[in-house]
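Course assignment 3, question 2. Fill in each field.
Student: A.L.
Task: Predict the tertiary structure for the chain below.
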Amino acid sequence: MANNIASPFRRWDYLKITVLGLAITALWQSLHSIILPLRLLDFVPETQKNTYLGILTLSGLLLAMFIQPVAGAASDRSWFRNGRRLPYIFIGIIIAVMLLPGIGLAGSFAAIFVVYCLLQVAANMAQGPYQAFIPEMVPTDKHGTASGVKGLLEIIGGVALIYIAGRFYSTGNGAGGLWLVLAILQIVLLGTMLATVFLVREPPVNSGRQRSPLMAAISHVFSKDLWKNHSFVWFLFSRLFVYMAFTTIQQFALYYLRDVVGVTDPAEATARFTIVAVVGMLLVVWPAGYLSDMIGRKLLTFLSGILGASGIALIALSQEYSTILWAAGIIGVAMGIFNSTNWALATDFAPKNEEARYLGIANMATAGGAVLARVIGPVIDALNGPNHESNFGYTFMLLVCIGYFVAGSLLVIGVRRRS
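Answer field:
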């Protein structure tokens, strides 16, 4: 990659600066959708599985909400011989690779809790700085296209590992399948990290800028100037609600298909549900990003939330697995449009030399949505009753998801793009 921002940005460059997203998404999608829900069944009571899953993932995501913007801001205000971002990416991914075997070795809920939280710290230490690549290196009128490529790679990574996890790690084949999936995750993380470190050449740092101490960078992350930008605040809340909807249905899909629909193999059924959703995403994620460069981000973001609400409504109206798969496709299309256009909108807000800080804050909304999505776990268990005699908790979950999607669409109306 050329060392100055004025050089032509080539097709190959889009891939180089976004490939790490494939591995990070593969990690979290496989853990949250398949590995952790099944792994917890080894430790926790059947009637409290939603509660324990919610507590586990909520705790880790609270860490992510803090670590990612702090690591991003620290990288904004530091420099090394090989760039501001790459050292953080290298160290974070190496630590994550070393931690992954702990998921298989854990012999209690407490052990898996510690390993998962440390994984969140390590992966977000890398992800915060990595996210600055698009606003830092890509011309402004190509942010939508770059966000589309980023979204496409993330979808590919997510669906590939969910398929592998659903195929090889299920309630029927035990530890051998789990270790295979964890080994594949290690290879993917390490490979994409090395590709990023060796192929990406960061633009030179402004030599007139002074390096800031770590504590100064941390205190600057949440400074008041950020919250005076009302459009950015509207953007954050819009993103928060949409990800609350998507993460809720994603997180509790395996238990819903198991308890309500009555599928014989919940892991495989969840993998198919996710794959259909991903196919929907793949169809639109790049075209939506490209289109947003021409017609703007807001309209497409608004429509994606309404479409997502329609998909959830279809699940609520039918308990037939075939119909639910159609709904998964609709939700996938909605999230494909949203991921490209909304992230492009985020990169539009990021000012020069504060790219990682702003995008770390933007992803706080993503992590915050994921955190709040987990809160509904105990509510589901309580409304289902002590012996799952009603399953009303799952119906309530779907109604809440519809409300989240609609709220996310309405809030984006207040966003005004930064000039």
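Instructor remarks: Residues 266-295 form the longest helix (30 residues). The domain at 11-202+213-414 is CATH 1.20.1250.20 (Growth Hormone; Chain: A;).
Grade: pending
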